[in-house]
Amino acid sequence: MATATQVTDASSAFQPFLADEESIAKPLETTQCAVAVPEKIHRAMRYSLLAGGKRVRPVLCLASCELVGGDESLAIPTACAVEMIHTMSLIHDDLPCMDNGDLRRGKPTNHKAFGEETAILAGDALLSLAFEHIATKTTKAVSPERVVRAIAEIGSAVGSLGLVAGQMADIQSEGKEVTLRELEYIHVHKTAKLLEATVVCGAIIGGAGEGEVERLRKYARCVGLLFQVVDDILDVTKSSVELGKTAGKDLASDKATYPKLMGIEGAKNFAARLVAQAAEELAHFDARAAPLYYLANYIANRHIEEQFLPFFTKI
Amino acid sequence: MATATQVTDASSAFQPFLADEESIAKPLETTQCAVAVPEKIHRAMRYSLLAGGKRVRPVLCLASCELVGGDESLAIPTACAVEMIHTMSLIHDDLPCMDNGDLRRGKPTNHKAFGEETAILAGDALLSLAFEHIATKTTKAVSPERVVRAIAEIGSAVGSLGLVAGQMADIQSEGKEVTLRELEYIHVHKTAKLLEATVVCGAIIGGAGEGEVERLRKYARCVGLLFQVVDDILDVTKSSVELGKTAGKDLASDKATYPKLMGIEGAKNFAARLVAQAAEELAHFDARAAPLYYLANYIANRHIEEQFLPFFTKI
């Protein structure tokens, strides 16, 4: 089990990823969505893909690859691909007929900046580029078997039993009484599935055994749900300027959220339990798991109180 | 070079595909978009995927696989995947902010039947399912190298330098004077790229050599362009009932089309030249190319006059 010292080491080891994103920003910048003809579609893709964001998914993917003994560079194309898919899901979710968002990452949403038709097409292009990117950019040091398995994992996380299922259930739940179980279905699919695929694919690319893959899958499910619970909490506690997107939308649209069903304190306690479960899965790995501990905690704390920090040092 | 007799044989050999689609309808029916939770998204996906259509792409994919010596069953997952992507492109193209179509394959368009948000999500799900389907359903008899190559080829055909580029250029051309060169750019990207990937992937899966792949690529480019030229001709010559979609839309929206730039006769002559070029590439293959000859001709003739039939028997 990792000690507090190891965790502190990891915290500083992990900082470069979150600070200047050296490992991810450059590869993303040089993906095939460099400015080309037709310019407008490429500008729209780059606008959202390179808008910053926390890059939590790519960082998780690289950390997972290293944890199982792979060199992180092997997983860079997959990490970029997952960020493209995440970006596509934000672009499409923000559309007028979906969540009708005006702000994202502190800037006008893609359809506000480029028009609805371009936003839809930019999402489509990012989704297909993601698969193409894994297939063409993964180095020969990774066997094609692993590449095919990663593509299958990501495809399943995005499709009608994954991210799309979550968004569909979310839309259908609006204006209805939603149970905690239904809310969990939405978040597991809308957020956790892609995070799970991200971590699992990092591990597959890095050459993980089946047992390792399954532990990391469970870890990622907790972190994925945690991510959404914290997002729900932030929506009711922070302003649009602080969030970089329209705040209070969930409340205004009477959307089901964890704070609504559990109260703010209940939601915060649930988040703490998820961090603990995630940590339990990581306890079976060696000190290389430290960045993943750190990330679970980072997600739990990103803009809210320091309440999770004491927990973190207890691991 | 194939003789007239061989071609006639092929014509009857090919008929079953076009008539009852045995090779494609069943695999499509049993793809992962069986009715599951959430039901609405799966019903929307099936509504468009199983709406009939000519299944030209999957048939081309299987024929190309057989032509290079592969068993057609090897290419069935790829053939289904291409049909999913084609279906997704129709669903998204029909959206109100794009072509705003009401009818498709004789039925209300997806967004008319299920709502705009479901139509967008059904498209997204079909696109990711396509890649997942190739990755998970292709039999072990096909090497993972070939699977990865097919995924890369299809990804590139759909993305911002393929289908999406064509749709973007198409949207941007509305209300503007478009040259013949610009029109060709639109159609090569909007239609021919995916057809090219379809044929090329069939060949890759079937184990084609590089020379065979390149000849089939050229064949498919001609057929892809041919497809669009004929579509443009039909838009001005047929009624909505005959087409199964809204007719005269291109004319009403003052869209650039081949008949508009070349006149109907000019467009028909161009179609005939494309059939001839396609046939030239096939002349380097043996009698197994006959279905591909037949298909080029079938596309040229589908609802219009019999003028191409004499050409066909001359091959």
TrEMBL record, chains A, B:
This chain belongs to which protein, by name?
Answer: Geranylgeranyl pyrophosphate synthase 7
Species of origin reads: Pyrus ussuriensis x Pyrus communis
Instruction: Identify which cofactors the protein needs according to its UniProt entry.
Output: Mg(2+)
User: Which GO terms of type biological process are on file?
Assistant: carotenoid biosynthetic process
Which pathway is this protein assigned to? Isoprenoid biosynthesis; geranylgeranyl diphosphate biosynthesis; geranylgeranyl diphosphate from farnesyl diphosphate and isopentenyl diphosphate: step 1/1; Isoprenoid biosynthesis; farnesyl diphosphate biosynthesis; farnesyl diphosphate from geranyl diphosphate and isopentenyl diphosphate: step 1/1; Isoprenoid biosynthesis; geranyl diphosphate biosynthesis; geranyl diphosphate from dimethylallyl diphosphate and isopentenyl diphosphate: step 1/1
Q: Name the family.
A: Belongs to the FPP/GGPP synthase family.
Q: What is the lineage of its organism?
A: Eukaryota, Viridiplantae, Streptophyta, Embryophyta, Tracheophyta
Zinc-finger among keywords? no
Q: Which UniProt keywords apply?
A: Carotenoid biosynthesis, Isoprene biosynthesis, Magnesium, Metal-binding, Transferase
* Database matches in CDD domains: Trans_IPPS_HT
